[in-house]
């Protein structure tokens, strides 16, 4: 996707999500700048979602087909819908660096 990436990983419970994301961004940004996009930088934030092992296959299929999926619904629309479906209160100012 041109404006986001989905990464599916299994974490050791001892690892914090923020440390893993920071390491991923740090380790990948140099490669992306050298090989793919000159001047690339990651946005400040990130989203992380826990998924039970019984749903892993569905998540993998979603990631594999995200281009088709996002033709019908933007990432921003999808995140808002997920939060609302789960009854999670949010402040729009903190959701996205770029609001659609």
Secondary-structure element series: HHHH
Termini gap: 15 Å
* Beta-strand percentage range: under 5%
* Rg calculated over all Cα atoms: 15 Å
Contiguous runs where pLDDT drops below 50 for at least 5 residues: none
Global shape: globular
Helical stretch tally: 4
What would you say this structure looks like, in words?
The protein is mainly α and 100 residues long. Helix content is 46%, strand content 0%. It starts with 16 loop residues before the first helix and ends in a 15-residue tail after the last helix.
Which descriptors would you attach to this protein?
100 residues; single chain; mainly alpha
Short description:
The protein has 100 residues and is an all-alpha fold. Helix content is 46%, strand content 0%.
List the helices and strands and how they pair.
Blueprint: H1 17-35, H2 56-64, H3 66-72, H4 75-85
């Amino acid at each position: 996707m041109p404006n986001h990436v989905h990464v599916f990983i299994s974490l050791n419970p001892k690892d914090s999500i923020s440390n893993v994301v920071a390491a991923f961004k740090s380790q990948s940004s140099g490669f992306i700048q050298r090989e793919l996009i000159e001047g690339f930088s990651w946005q400040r934030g990130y989203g992380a979602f826990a998924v039970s092992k019984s749903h892993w296959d569905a998540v993998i299929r979603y990631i594999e087909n995200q281009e088709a999926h996002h033709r019908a619904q933007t990432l921003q629309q999808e995140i808002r819908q997920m939060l609302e479906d789960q009854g999670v209160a949010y402040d729009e100012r903190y959701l996205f660096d770029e609001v659609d």
